[in-house]
Structures are given as structure tokens and as C-alpha cells.
Amino acid sequence: MQYRRLGKSGLQLSALSFGAWVTFGQQVGRSLARDMLAMAHDHGVNYFDNAEVYNHGVAETLMGDVLADLRFPRDSYCVSSKVFFGARPNPLPTQRGLSRKHVLEACHQALQRLRVDHLDLYFCHRPDPDTPVEETVAAMDLLVRQGKVLYWGTSEWPAGLIGEAHRVARENHLYAPSMEQPEYNLLHRERVEQEYAPLYRDYGMGTTIWSPLASGLLTGKYNDGVPNDARLAQPGYEWLRQAVLEQGGERIAKVRRLAPIAAELGVSQAQLAIAWCLVNPHVSTVMLGASRLEQLEHNLDVLRLLPRLTPDVLARVEQAVA
């Protein structure tokens, strides 16, 4: 495993991490979750990602139970949660958002579900237009000073608002966000590569990127429709299916053009897409998701591909998705 600093912080995360979105508590039960976390940890993965909203808290409870069962040394891994959407199916106004009340109470609830005494990373899952950024920054600072959170960050915030959070932190001597968790893949690039460029330069932000496979689209498995066992076929994720398959013909054509490049390298399209993300020096870690153990094992083997992504190969990839 390779390890990368989380931006300018001293925390080193595994280049590949493992997340619970969609799968935990739905496609993945306790036994499989245990096998997956054990395999990931054995491969050197030291970061496990979660959020209050994932399966309405069930994903965090499942991960917490499995981590307690596996008894990894607590100093051998990092675990995260995210706050904004709430953990209840129909949250009340005080049970969602980025108010001081919800940020603090959601943290306490995540600690209980994950069965840990601190969160290594804690993200504001989306911007909250109803809460002043000053209030959110102060709430996160309080959690850091209490030792309940080690690093805090944002997820899918516009660059300008992240800059505002840094200004508030600087002027009030508060802890500033250390990382962003954006979507990043061969089909979704502008925010990470262009909009966030000043954040890396000015603040040393790290990124923990999600959806490196565009929710499976870049594997090629949706080229001829949606398989019944795919995450896009899961109840409640119709919105994701629509988002992933929008402009379907154009996006699938790009995926098909990647196939011969992967074949020549002797790897899968999934491995090519994940490795491509790791070429970006501003990517601190690429979060993997899986519904099958062999799928996770396959994608954890991607690091061997990095030396073979020469400038010529990368140029061909760029041409394929242009």
C-alpha cells in the first residue's frame, strides 16, 4: 500500500480507502462487512469512510460493530462520519443541517454508532444555506478542541465557501478545514481539477475522493443496461440511476473507448479508472466501495498499475474521454 499526506496535514492515509455508501446494511450484511474490512486492513487500508445518512445510521452501526469485533488497534486506522442530511428518514429541522446543535449532536451519535471515542475525520456533507459559516466553523473547532474530532472538512462545497471557512478560522484563531470529499472520476473532473486548484495552493487542502468508477459506469457493466444486482437497481436509488445514466449514450461511448486501453494493459476498466484518479497529486485517497469480496480484492490490486500509466497511456485515456 502507498500512503499519502492529507493535504498539508501530518496525517497519512492509504492511497486506497474503503467506504460504506449504498452497500453497508443493504447489499452488505455483517458477515460480508467483516470480511471486507478485514481484507482491506490486511492490504494496508487505514481509512474507513461513513456518514450519518448512509442507510439512516445503519451503515455506521454495522461498521462500528464489525470494527469492535475485529479488534484492530485503534491507532492503526482512521474512521470518518459526515453531518448534514441527518440519520432519520424524515428528520426534523434540528436533526439535520450544520447548526451548532446538529453538528455536535450528530458527532456524539456517530461516536456511539461507530463505537469509538473520536472521529479521525468529520465532514460537513453539504453546504447549509440556513446556517452562517461562522457557526459551523466554530462548532467544528469546538469538537477538535474537545478531542472528539481530529480533522474536519467539507464535502461538495463550492470553493468560494471553503475559502470563506478558512477566512473565518484564520480571523478567529479556529481550526480550519483540512480536506474536501468531492466526486472525482474520468467523467466528472472540473471541480477537482479547476475549481479547487486555489484551495490546494492557498490552504493545502487534501481530498478524499468518492465515486472513482462513476457509480460503476466506468467498469463497463452498464454498457448494455442495468443488471438486477447492481447498486443502480437498488430501491431508493432511482435518483442515482438517473444521475449516472444521464447523457447515457455519450458517456457510455467514452467508457467503450477505454476498453481497448485497459485490455492492452492487461487490467480491467475498473482498475484503469481507479489508477487514473491516483495520478492526480492532489488526491489524498481514493475511496472504494464494493458489494462483493472479490470485487474489493480486485480493486485493491490497482497500485501495481501506476508505473505503467506513462504519459503516452494517459494521453490515450484523455483522448478516449474527450
From TrEMBL:
InterPro entries: K_chnl_volt-dep_bsu_KCNAB-rel (IPR005399), NAD(P)_OxRdtase_dom_sf (IPR036812), NADP_OxRdtase_dom (IPR023210). Keywords: Ion channel, Ion transport, NADP, Oxidoreductase, Transport. One of its GO terms (biological process) is monoatomic ion transmembrane transport. The keyword Ion transport applies. Residues 16-320 form the NADP-dependent oxidoreductase domain. It comes from the Bacteria. SUPFAM superfamilies: NAD(P)-linked oxidoreductase (SSF51430). GO terms for molecular function: oxidoreductase activity. Pfam families: Aldo_ket_red. Belongs to the shaker potassium channel beta subunit family. This is Voltage-dependent potassium channel beta subunit, animal.
